Amino acid sequence: MKGFFRAEAVARVEAVSAEEYLYFYPRGTSTVRMNDNTSPYGPAPRIREMLEGKMSAIIGGLEGCTYYPDQTAYNLRQKIASLNGVTPDQVVVGCGADEVIDMIVRVFVNHGDTAIVPLPEYWMYSRLARIGGAKVLNPSIGKPPELKGFRPERGKVLFISNPNNPAGNLFDGETIGSLAEEFPGIVILDEAYAEYAGQSLTSLVNEYTNLVVVRTFSKIYGLTNFRIGYSISSKEIAFLLRKIKNPFNVPSVSQSLALEALSDQNFVNEVRERNASEREYLRERLERMGVTVYPSCANFLLVDFGADCDPIFNGLVARGIFTRRISQPGYEGCIRITVRSRGENDAFLAGLCGVMGGMP
Ligand code: PMP
After folding, report:
1. CA-nearest residue, atom 6 of ligand 1
2. What CA–CA distance (Å, rounded) separates 69 from 59?
3. Which cofactor does it need (predicted)?
């Protein structure tokens, strides 16, 4: 090797101290996927058809392969805007909610700024804020999480997921509004699971100029692999986000599918109802097994197994059933379980009975 360039000595300290994301993401047909809060129903029927036969039409003919995608995602932003009662210049599209959140951090966080990430959190918040150079504070908001009466310290950015991931509960508009009113920095309201709850607070962005709502096509729309999410905010914030975003970040295929997905709200309603009934089915049976299940309006359930959590999680993995272990302070005994289809839910319940039955 030539030269003595030592990358770590030169890199930003936040990159050196970040950790590579090595989470084992299971794939295969024999696994039960209750770990990633994605939809067992996949995308809407029209999209299935498009994917099966019309790939070239989606990108505007095969010559579309060599064009860069529309960097403004104009058609998609128009549709998002009309569904949410905002204007297209309040909408910014990115490669999943994660990229959109990262863009917000890149616009607002200076080195050494404070980011407030209440616990329990969606783990990417602390990670993205730290990599962005923020000092991260993780105040607890209790178990189950509660924002009424929560008075965060002053900071540049405050992260809230609504419904909360991992707990699944929903905060109301009044509570979010008064937080946004009092907080001096940007409030990121992550509505990745809002469609499951049937409540969205996007209209609040016209009232609170520091509020940014972030949403995704990865969950109820079943388009996880196409990496597409968006923000709704004031025009001023959206303009700043557009200025720093990678111009051609979202492929045409993803834009077209997302646009089509928004046109089928019947499918969204159907998945919401199926999810709610499967969630109730799982909740009832889990409670009968004597474990604590937190009320959820999302597509997952937070289950408290107490001290025996690790053997249960590992026992399920050994049976090909993947769930999400939550080891945040106060939630050490908890596992998050994605609500899936009846077959997978039954396989999970049978596996769990087997694991718990075999325990002393
Ligand atoms: N926010 C929350 C609360 C999530 O749970 C997830 C996905 N696990 C995301 C954002 C990321 O979504 P996307 O796939 O759109 O990046």
Report:
1. 192
2. 9
3. pyridoxal 5'-phosphate
CATH number for 300? 3.90.1150.10
Q: Note whether residue 51 is domain-resident.
A: no
Residue from 219, 225, 227, 302 whose mutation best tests the ligand 1 pocket (most atoms within 8 A of CB) = 219
Ligand 1 pocket mutation, candidates 102, 117, 124, 296, criterion most atoms within 8 A of CB: 124
Pocket (CB within 6 angstroms of ligand 1): 37, 96-98, 122, 161, 165, 190, 192, 216, 218, 229
Full residue range of the structural domain in which residue 220 is found: 7-23+68-262
Q: Which of 262, 295, 329 is the last residue of a domain?
A: 262
Instruction: Give the model's pLDDT for residue 272.
Output: 98
Determine the distance separating the centroid of ligand 1 and the alpha carbon of 5, expressed in angstroms. Answer: 36
- Of the pLDDT bands very low, low, confident and very high (cuts 50, 70, 90), residue 358 is low
- Is the separation of the CB atoms in 41 and 222 below 8 Å? yes
**pTM of the model as a whole:** 0.94
Region 227-239: what's the mean pLDDT?
Answer: 97
What is the rounded distance in angstroms from the CA atom of residue 279 to the CA atom of residue 277? 5
Stretch 60-69: mean pLDDT, rounded?
79
Sequence-ordered list of residues with C-beta below 8 angstroms from that of 52, at least 6 positions apart, any chain: none
Task: Say if residue 339 is in the same domain as residue 246.
Answer: no
Domain count for the chain, please give it: 2
Query: Within 10 A of 23 (CB to CB), how many other CB atoms are there?
Result: 10
Q: Output the pLDDT for position 360.
A: 53
